[in-house]
Amino acid sequence: MNIKKTAFFVILLLNVNFLIAQKSYDKLNEFEALNGITYKIGDTIKLKKGSIANGEFEYVYFLNKVNHVLHENLSKEYSDKFITIKKIERYNMKLIKGVYFVVSGQGFKNYTLDIQNAILTCEIEDCIE
Q: Which residue, 15, 23, 50, 66, has fewest beta-carbon neighbours within 10 Å?
């Protein structure tokens, strides 16, 4: 690898790490979403269908919080199943802000639900169509 490419990748890596480091998380007990529903820890949410072309869920995914790498989207086999809210967190990164739920369901544990986008894409029941 030449010096220019190496320097580019080092700068890119530093920028990504800087953005990730500039974050804060606030734990919430409840959150009123775009659909007007106030969700609380312990509530259940019914999944509909994933919004990715292959049927997987784009906004229900496993996220490694250590390095923020998206590992896998929830499989389409969980369509029409229920998930339970375990945690509600508001995140505030330098360029990205939002609220997500840590959820679990039958056959999986600790996935992330991007509630606002799941509502907008009708991945969950009580969406905005």
A: 66
